[in-house]
């Protein structure tokens, strides 16, 4: 997620930047799914799941806001 955002940040046009930030948003949503599946399968404990879920819950709106600010 971070590497994709860095790659987008250094693009020349806002359109290219938005594209990469959307990729990062999709990766965040995908990560959310895999973390949930890992928890349900017993691969991670409830504490780890809660921490990861909370971090993603904070990250996703930030990425969305970043994309919206590029539209100005």
Order of helical and strand elements: HHH
- Globally, the shape reads elongated
Fraction of residues in β-strands: under 5%
What's the oligomerization state? single chain
Biggest sheet details: none
Name the average pLDDT: 94
- What is the number of helical segments per DSSP (H or I, 4+ residues)? 3
Low-pLDDT stretches are: none
Rg from Cα: 14 Å
Q: What labels describe this entry?
A:
72 residues; elongated; mainly alpha
Describe this structure in words.
With 72 residues, this protein is an all-alpha fold. The chain is 83% helix and 0% strand. It contains three helices and no strands. Helix 1 runs antiparallel to helix 2 and helix 2 packs antiparallel against helix 3. The chain is elongated and about 45 Å long. The two termini are 23 Å apart.
List the helices and strands and how they pair.
Elements: H1 2-9, H2 14-40, H3 46-70
Helix pairs in contact: 1-2, 2-3
In short:
With 72 residues, the protein is mainly alpha-helical.
């Amino acid at each position: 997620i971070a590497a994709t955002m860095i790659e987008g940040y250094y693009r020349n046009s806002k359109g290219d930047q938005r594209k990469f930030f959307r990729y990062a948003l999709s990766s965040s949503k995908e990560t959310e799914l895999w973390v949930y599946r890992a928890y349900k399968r017993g691969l991670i404990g409830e504490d780890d799941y809660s921490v990861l879920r909370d971090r993603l819950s904070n990250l996703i709106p930030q990425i969305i806001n970043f994309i919206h600010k590029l539209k100005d």
